[in-house]
Write a structure and sequence with these properties.
mainly beta; 60s Ribosomal Protein L30, Chain: A; 7-stranded antiparallel sheet; 65% strand; globular
């Protein structure tokens, strides 16, 4: 286990507009407001994009993701963390559950997801932490690591 202690800094409440694309719009907001690390919550709607819903083979060394398309307006709730990558750019890692007509699609929104109607996001800044996302070449993903 690796860990880092920090404190809650600023807290932002955002209303995302119809058609705004996640995770890009949150990463841009973090750049504009010099947010290095944060906990992010999302509630609202989504209607276009893809989510990663598991690896094709959980035993494989390199992750080959299962991409699931998001089609039609869905209710969405998500939780994620934002930390810088090795070049200092903010990277959001958020998983979400998207529901429609009694069925739920759950996965990572990294491939991109469009807001439908509205997305409400609370960004709780974490100050004093020294974690960042480092590329893990063995697995083909970025993982939180100590600097």
């Amino acid at each position: 286990m690796q860990y880092s202690q920090g404190n809650v800094g600023r807290v932002f409440t955002l209303r995302l507009e119809n058609g705004e694309r996640l995770p890009g719009c949150l990463e841009e907001f973090a750049r504009e407001h010099d947010i290095k690390a944060a906990l992010c919550t999302l509630i609202g709607g989504a209607d276009k994009g893809n989510v990663v819903s598991g690896p094709k083979d959980g035993k494989a060394l390199v992750i080959d993701p299962i991409l699931c398309p998001v089609q039609g307006a869905r209710e969405v709730i998500g939780l994620g963390t934002l930390f810088p990558d090795e070049s200092g750019e903010p990277v959001l890692h958020m998983h979400a559950a998207l529901g429609r007509d009694g069925e739920t699609l759950t996965g990572c929104i990294r491939p991109g997801l469009d807001v439908w109607l509205v997305g409400e996001v609370v960004v709780m800044e974490i100050v004093g932490t020294d974690l960042l996302r480092k590329q893990n070449t063995r697995r083909g993903v970025s993982l939180l690591s100590k600097e």
